[in-house]
């Protein structure tokens, strides 16, 4: 189904799972970090290879079956994907750095401290990919990830970099919980007659990942 029509440049925990569901409602088939857990045949290793040598990756093959992609690992490669898919629109999901870091501390960051406890081989493969690709490995640096100001600055720097790099006619900046209107206008889609999704709350995230440590 590639090429990608929509590229998500926003970090995880900025409403990317709700955006994934919203894009699916609009008719896209959307790649997200959770896709690796839902489809055991979906290979996560190409993203490790891409992090080491982006020019060697077959992006069409990597995103085969998808025409939209959000969350990590996609946001790490938004620049390369923009070049590969010059007609794709870019979505940047944002929230305050303080609320983003607070959400990370309740969801993803505690998981990194339990890395060695993972029982599932599939989950280990995904964790290995995330350890390298997400924020260039800082996620698994137990000292750096606890430095609130440094990590918040990394988040803010990424947001500002995307705004500088992506031409305004290709970019939509979306606030957490914003809803349908501007998204549909940007993508040329009719507003659905259903509420904008709200998924992957802190509690649902914790429930979903806990089984991989059992």
From TrEMBL:
UniProt xrefs under InterPro entries: P-loop_NTPase, Sulfotransfer_4
Xref: SUPFAM superfamilies: P-loop containing nucleoside triphosphate hydrolases (SSF52540)
Domain of life per record: Eukaryota
Coiled coil regions, renumbered to chain: none
Name recorded for this polypeptide: P-loop containing nucleoside triphosphate hydrolase protein
């Amino acid at each position: 189904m590639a090429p990608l029509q929509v590229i998500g440049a926003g970090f995880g925990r900025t409403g990317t799972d709700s955006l994934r569901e919203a894009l699916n409602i609009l008719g896209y088939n959307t790649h997200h970090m959770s896709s690796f857990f839902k489809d055991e045949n979906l290979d996560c290793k190409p993203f490790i290879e891409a992090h080491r040598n982006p020019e060697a990756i077959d992006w069409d093959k990597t995103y085969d079956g998808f025409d939209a992609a959000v969350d990590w690992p996609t946001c790490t490669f938004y620049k390369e994907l923009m070049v590969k898919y010059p007609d794709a629109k870019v979505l940047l999901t944002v929230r305050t750095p303080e609320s983003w870091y607070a959400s990370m501390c309740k969801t993803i960051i505690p998981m990194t401290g339990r890395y060695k406890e993972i029982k599932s081989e599939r989950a280990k493969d995904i964790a290995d990919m995330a350890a390298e690709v997400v924020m260039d490995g800082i996620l698994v640096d137990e000292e750096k990830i606890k430095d609130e100001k440094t990590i918040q600055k990394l988040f803010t720097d990424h947001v500002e970099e995307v705004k500088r790099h992506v031409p305004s006619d290709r970019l939509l900046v979306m606030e957490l919980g914003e809803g349908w209107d501007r998204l549909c206008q940007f993508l040329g889609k009719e507003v659905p007659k259903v509420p904008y999704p709200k998924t992957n709350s802190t509690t649902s995230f914790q429930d979903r990942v806990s089984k991989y440590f059992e």
